[in-house]
């Protein structure tokens, strides 16, 4: 038909130190989605959270942004359990485990009944004068066929330091290992950022070195970009990406910014295909922005 009707009922309940919330939604014709969560502290240093989700295959809502392994809020059943433990005043350990099941085939799985799990642990140490550090390990296991499984292990080590009052340095090393019956790949990326602020000026620079055998071992990292915009690209293929970003704000009304990014591929002679094909092994992006605040 030409009509889609959505109904939903949300609730939130606080009892002592326990917070429970959830939502029940229905979309025509008679398909439902349910999400229920609970969060509570076990002690002053330890807290837990849990979430149960059930999205029927036929459910559709164009604005749904619920937690899930799939890209859409449909065809999924899952359980999420997380906790955070404050080791010391400056150190904490966060972890979660997520189990998911897809009753029907979808874009990623060409068969019914695919399932998997994902677990992550992150140790973080924050000292304002000595910097911020974290070490993260993530493991996922899921179906790639009726009988075959795929394992993926991702790790990250991140450092933030203020070199001076005006100069900040950020470095991250990321690894992505993928193993299945037809793949055995290791991808890595090492990026370094410098950020300098002085009066009305802000300057940022990034140098990223990427080494991945294929798109399947791609790595994601937030990228410096212009104000009021967002960039979380996938880094893949043997390459190097350099970014320079300059922003100038002379007063409270005007704001000007320019971004230049260049990607140099080590094993390509052309980039893209068809009308978008670039003859050469490098690609340069240029963006500029002028903002006026009333």
General description of the model:
The mean pLDDT is 92. A hairpin with a 4-residue loop joins β5 and β6 (91-102). The chain is 0% helix and 63% strand. The chain has strands at 6-15, 18-27, 31-41, 46-55, 76-86, 91-102, 114-127, 131-143, 149-162, 167-179, 184-198, 201-211, 219-220, 234-235, 239-248, 254-265, 270-271, 278-279, 282-292. Strands 1-2-3-4-5-6-7-8-9-10-11-12-15-16-19 form a 15-stranded antiparallel beta sheet, with no helix packed on it. A two-stranded antiparallel sheet has the order 13-14. The two termini are 45 Å apart. The protein has no helices and 19 strands. It has 294 residues and is an all-beta fold.
